[in-house]
Design brief:
single chain; mainly alpha; Serine Threonine Protein Phosphatase 5, Tetratricopeptide repeat; two-stranded antiparallel sheet; 72% helix; 3 domains; 34 helices
Length: 765
């Protein structure tokens, strides 16, 4: 088969594609999609992998067995088995990846394809360039984090979704940024020490290009635009960001191809700005192994040449000042973690790791299904997780890759996961023992892999981090075979490979449809949020129509994604109160969407809760739905027994179904799980009952709340106010005085407002 392009052209195109993946993957994000970080990165990598696989190659490939490829294939096979409908709690999520994670089988296939591509394309010169480009991607990420610290951000993030004083750059989470930088630091230090700097003649032009790039990036930030009194439109900002990244990246690479002390300091500032303890440990582990493997080498000596004492003191002082500015939140968290190690683990990881062990015990061989941890977690978690992370939050992963592999793919998947690391170590030892091996890059690869494994003990990999891990595997394979296997053979282009590409093509194009679906979903969700704040009835209907159309489009583009169908049901339900004659029709549409969603993910407790809510609403027209509501909430409790909300909802459903004794038992369980939440819930229900004219039921609920949680101020507060409305000032004063002793100031309990005014009114004759 004759190559489509001449070999030199094809090789150059492939090289640019590989380097683009290394440079841009960690930097990509999108404000147009609902998932702003993982989905754009995954789509980019998927399309690049498909492009490289479909280009006919003229490059010979090295023959012989590849232990790493064999281990990757076994791991992929174990993951595929865990995706089977008979194994996985949600085979659709296992195939696509749970929303926001996207770590399903389709992503594993993309990463496997990248390993095949990289082992085919990597050469020692290309590996040098890849490490260099990874270093600049890390430097740009750190630079972005520093800019975020001073308010110069490229996007107006939702304050509720970000952590104060913990920067995340373009990675979406401070822990992910810290992990990526920790892996990149050893690779940056392995930059070509003998690389020739650019000529003096070109330096002024490159400096101007660098200044222009930084200015373009600054002009795209909202703070800079505010200082100048301008607000550029979105297309202009996009162009400024693209050109700024291009100019900055090109000029930096050309100006300084070698690792430098300022560059290392910038990377360290990036890690410290995240406040990530796991990332710091990964950085420390990676640097320690790199220093150990590089001891006595010229790399360590050339990186730290003799410097004047004045320069050392000045640089040290500036470094300490910078670390004090950027690392203060991190240092505080680290010192507190050391001083209270047990409490720190209890509040950050143990309440996730214990349920993960229970999941392994319940599903020992093949797990709950690849990337199904979020679905399975509520059935095994305790109430402490809800009190720390929120009642409506389910842990995305086990925050430990060993536990994650065992919980979702079983002991079979864990064995395959460990086999991959065994293959990595076997190939690493083989490469290290080669007498003519250049150990500079090898030491950096091993140190970066060690940092990756350390951060995986406390967190988990995302697309950018996992792609870097695949690059390390391919690089290690290259270094191990470069001098021991000089023979070559053509890269296989058999009919079987062509059929394999044809069969997997839909999986590679899947991210394109998912990206389009997520764009529609984001628009629909934005319209739904605007509707909640819009008072005009006509505009509310228009926003509702738009939300329904966009969510329906998302569900049609990606019918296997349950989340889009769920939000379509929410859009239908949002329409119900706007209609008088057709309210039941819209409620029926919402019910059909929720039933479809629940059938797509039968082990999701939250989807059952949505069903219970819509069945309760349908019971206003048809009382037979009361029994279905009770059954839906009962199933939600079975799937998430430590969630007090589901227990309270079940108790109310039992009450409506005239099962009083069972309702009392369910409410008692809710008090056992979380007395504070249950008392507040009953207080809110009491207000609703009172407003609807059921005074007896309102006071009965408040009495139950106080009996179940006598130290909770909210129920006393609500009952005191209702007593005031009833004119029973003496009882009101007693309850409000009790509130005074339990919650003296609104600052301690925001639910208690104007307490002194109500108490003064109650004490008047």
């Amino acid at each position: 088969m004759r190559p489509l392009f001449p070999t030199p052209v094809r090789a150059k195109v492939a090289e640019l594609a590989v380097l683009s993946a290394v440079l841009f993957t960690p930097l990509l994000f999108s404000l147009g999609t609902r998932d702003q970080f993982e989905l754009p990165k995954l789509t980019f990598l998927s399309l690049l992998a498909l492009f490289l696989l479909l280009i006919p190659t003229g490059r010979p490939a090295t023959p012989g067995r590849d232990p790493i490829l064999g281990a990757l294939l076994l791991l992929f096979l174990a993951q595929a088995v865990s995706c089977l409908p008979s194994v996985s709690l949600n085979w659709r999520a296992s195939l696509l990846g749970d929303y926001e994670n996207f770590l399903g089988l389709s992503t594993s296939l993309v990463l496997l394809a990248w390993y095949l591509v990289l082992t085919r394309e990597l050469t020692p010169p290309l590996l040098e360039k890849a490490l260099l480009y990874n270093g600049w991607a890390a430097l740009l990420s750190s630079l972005y984090a520093v800019a975020q610290r001073f308010g110069y951000d490229l996007a107006p993030w939702n304050p509720a979704s970000v952590s104060a004083a913990r920067e995340f750059a373009s990675m979406g989470n401070p822990n992910f940024l810290a992990a990526y930088l920790a892996m990149s630091v050893p690779l940056y230090l392995a930059g070509p020490p003998g690389g020739a700097p650019s000529s003096r003649k070109g330096s002024p032009v490159l400096l101007l290009l660098l200044a222009a790039g930084i200015l373009l990036l600054l002009s795209a930030t909202f703070k800079f635009g505010g200082l100048l009194g301008i607000r550029p439109p979105a297309p202009a900002r996009t162009c400024a960001i693209a050109l700024g990244l291009l100019f900055t990246g090109v000029s930096l690479v050309r100006l300084s191809p070698r690792p430098s002390l300022p560059g290392l300091l910038l990377l360290l500032l990036g890690v410290f700005s995240t406040g990530s303890r796991g990332g710091f440990l990964a950085l420390l582990a990676g640097l320690s192994l790199w220093a150990f493997l590089s001891r006595g080498s010229r790399d360590l000596k050339s990186f730290l040449p003799p410097l004047p004492k004045t320069l050392l003191w000045t640089g040290g002082t500036l470094a300490m000042a910078a670390l004090g500015l950027f690392g203060r939140p991190f240092l505080g968290r680290l010192l507190d973690s050391i001083a209270h190690a047990g409490q720190s683990l209890e509040t950050s990881r143990l309440h996730i790791w214990r349920p993960a062990l229970k999941m392994i015990e319940a599903h020992p061989w093949f797990g709950t299904g690849l990337d199904s941890f979020k679905t399975a977690f509520p059935a095994y978690s305790g109430s402490e997780f809800g009190r720390i992370d929120g009642l409506f939050v389910s842990s995305r992963t086990a925050h430990n890759e060993l536990l994650q592999a065992a919980a979702t793919t079983g002991l079979v998947g864990l064995a395959a996961f460990l086999l991959l690391w065994a293959a990595f170590l076997f190939v690493a030892v083989r490469a290290w023992r080669q007498p003519s091996q250049d150990r500079r890059a090898l030491a950096a690869i091993l140190a970066s892999a060690f940092a990756f494994q350390v951060q995986n003990l406390f967190s988990f990999g995302v697309v950018a981090i996992n792609f870097l891990w695949i690059l390390l595997l391919a690089a290690l394979s290259l270094l191990a075979r470069a001098r021991t296997q000089p023979g070559t053979r053509p890269f296989p282009r058999s009919l079987a490979m062509g059929l394999g590409l044809l069969l997997t093509l839909p999986l590679f194009l899947l991210p394109v449809r998912r990206l389009a679906a997520d764009l529609a979903f984001n628009l629909g969700n934005a319209a739904s949020e605007m509707l909640k704040r819009e008072p005009d009835e006509g505009k509310r209907r228009s926003l509702s129509d738009f939300s329904i159309v966009r969510n329906l489009r998302a569900a049609e583009l990606l019918p296997l994604e349950a989340k889009y169908r769920l939000y379509l049901g929410l859009a239908f339900e949002q329409r119900v109160p706007m209609e008088e004659k057709e309210a039941k029709v819209w409620a029926l549409r919402a019910m059909e969407s929720y039933e479809r969603t629940a059938s797509m993910s039968r082990s999701n407790a939250y989807y059952r809760s949505n069903l219970g809510r819509i069945y309760t609403q349908m019971a206003e027209w048809d009382p037979t739905y009361r029994e279905q509501a009770q059954e839906a909430y009962e199933r939600a409790v079975e799937l998430a027994p430590s969630n007090p909300l589901f227990l309270c909802q079940w108790a109310l459903a039992l009450e409506r179904a005239e099962k009083g004794e069972e309702a009392v038992l369910a409410l008692g369980k809710a008090f056992q799980v979380d007395a504070d939440f249950t008392a507040k819930f009953l207080g809110q229900m009491a207000v609703t009952d009172y407003d609807q004219g059921d005074r007896v039921q309102a006071f009965r609920r408040l009495a139950a709340a106080i009996e179940g949680h006598p130290q909770g101020p909210e129920a006393y507060y609500v009952r005191g106010r209702l007593y005031l409305l009833e004119g029973r000032k003496r009882q009101a004063a007693l309850d409000l005085l009790k509130v005074k002793t339990l919650a003296p100031t609104p600052e301690k309990n925001p639910a208690i407002q104007d307490l002194d005014l109500y108490l003064e009114e109650a004490q008047k004759n």
